[in-house]
Amino acid sequence: MAQPNNAPEKAAEAPSAGLRRAVTERLAAATESGNMEAACEALWEALSAFAGDPFKTAKGLSYTYSIRGNEMFFTRKEKSVTRASVNRAFDTVLRLQREGTAITGPKMLRCFGASYLYPLFIRIGVVRTGALIMEAEKE
After folding, report:
1. Which residues, including other chains, have CB under 8 Å from residue 61's CB and lie 6 or more apart?
2. CA 76, CA 138: separation in Å to the nearest integer?
3. Helix, strand, coil percentages, rounded to 5, for the chain
4. Which of 63, 89, 94, 138 could disulfide-pair with 76, CB 3.0 to 4.6 Å?
5. What predicted TM-score, i.e. pTM, was given to this entire model?
């Protein structure tokens, strides 16, 4: 007779560091290629890999997020942020950085949910600091 399994359900394991590194490298390569469709796909893949991780807004408020379909849901916000809004913020960041403008805060993303997207963009390497922009221009 089979014994009942009284063990608690095992939570889904977080993506490995290797997977996260791979998706952020794919994002960087797709972004450098100039193919925005591929870059947006790689962006969403990278954001999916970091879903569930703890983040802090620029003001220090803790949050996490999940992705369901084409929407992001943040623990501190009742409304979702759509994939289209994320792509617009991504395009804004890329354009400003190409112009040599350092992204210094969430308001520069100019979209709904920017205070939550800004820390994500930093972690996955989309937003570079001013020093990094200057180094990239020297190359």
Report:
1. 76
2. 40
3. 50, 10, 40
4. 63
5. 0.80
Helical (H) or strand (E) element with 17 = helix 17-33
CA distance 103 to 72: 22
DSSP 58-82: TT--EE-EEEETTEEEETT-SS-EE
In this prediction, residues 99-109 reach a mean pLDDT of 93
User: What is the rounded average pLDDT of the residues 89-116?
Assistant: 94
pLDDT bin (cut points 50, 70, 90) of residue 3 is very low
Instruction: Please answer whether residues 72 and 121 qualify as being in contact, where contact means their C-beta atoms are separated by less than 8 angstroms.
Output: no
Mean model confidence pLDDT for the chain: 85
